[in-house]
Amino acid sequence: MAFNLILMGLPGAGKGTQAQKIDEKYQVPHISTGDIFREAMANKTEMGLAAKAYIDKGELVPDEVTNGIVRDRLSQQDVLTNGFMLDGYPRNLDQAAALDKMLADSDRHLDAVINIDVEPSVLVDRLSARYICRVCGATYNRISNPTKVEGTCDVCGSHDFYQRDDDKPETVKNRLAVNIKMNTPLVDYYKNQNVLHTINGERDIDLVFKDVADVLQSVND
Q1: Residue stretches of the annotated binding site for AMP
Q2: For 106-124, how does the pLDDT look when each residue is reduced to its tens digit (9 = 90+)?
Q3: Annotated active-site residue in 164, 168, 173, 191
Q4: Contacts for 119 with CB less than 8 Å, ≥ 6 apart
Q5: Beta bridge partners of residue 86, listed in sequence order
Q6: What phi and psi values does residue 139 have, to the nearest 5 degrees?
Q7: What secondary structure does DSSP assign to 83-118, as a single string?
Q8: How far is residue 153's CA from residue 138's CA, in Å, rounded to a whole number?
Q9: Whole-angstrom Cα distance, residue 213 to residue 216?
């Protein structure tokens, strides 16, 4: 089965995990904007070089360059054959409109936008639960991946841990607020197009994926 999908969700909602499971089951190419930017720059494509010029100056890459890199990726044979799963794009309404035009120009359409929904308070707990061994750098999570013996690194036996500044609750809350502001108009945009499917991401990973698979089955029927 070939699908044209967008995966949405706030940081920590589990998009990466679900993308991997979709890829394993359906072999739909997973298109992460970070990955295609790096690939376009490495291959020195016209759009890749344009993006690099902005990134090297520490500036945001304009929408027209981002759209061009996505358009190039969506024209590749694996996507034309097997569909796509976009992750990290579109990030605003102008990009969403550009994507609609790209697909219309090649006689394609979006099958589904899957929004993995998790309450921000739960995400703060998830994202701020990460801690790191100061001696060997092993990473743990108090909720999902704690040390086997409390206070002792599984790898080196150290008892010295720390938390990165960007994992601290206040920083996490600020990051989530920025993402909520960015995502809300897109959620409304795709809801109005009748392609949005919101899934409760606060449950076990396999239960979330069952709902994802049910959505994909329904759009394929």
Answers
A1: 33, 38, 59-61, 88-91, 95, 164, 175
A2: 999 999 999 999 999 999 9
A3: 164
A4: 202
A5: 6, 31
A6: -110, 135
A7: EEEEES---SHHHHHHHHHHHHHTT----EEEEEE-
A8: 8
A9: 5
Q: Tokens in use for 134?
A: 């100061």
What tokens does 125 get?
Answer: 């707990």
- Return the domain boundaries, the chain: 3-120+174-220
pLDDT in tens, 30-88: 998 888 888 889 999 898 999 889 888 888 889 999 999 999 999 999 999 999 999 99
Our answer to whether residue 101 is catalytic in this structure is: no
Token pair in block for residue 163: 């938390």
How many residues are listed for the chain in this entry? 221
Look up 15 and say whether it is catalytic.
Answer: yes
Reported as type and span, the H/E element at residue 208 is: helix 205-220
What digits encode the pLDDT tens for the residues 145-185?
999 999 999 999 999 999 998 889 999 999 999 999 999 99
Torsion angle (degrees, nearest 10) of CA 89, 90, 91, 92: 170
The residues, ordered by sequence, that sit 6+ positions from 68 with a Cβ below 8 Å of its Cβ are 46, 47, 50
* C-alpha closest to that of 25 among 215, 220, 209, 170: 209
Strands 3-9 and 83-87: parallel
Architecture of the domain whose range is 3-120+174-220: 3-Layer(aba) Sandwich (3.40)
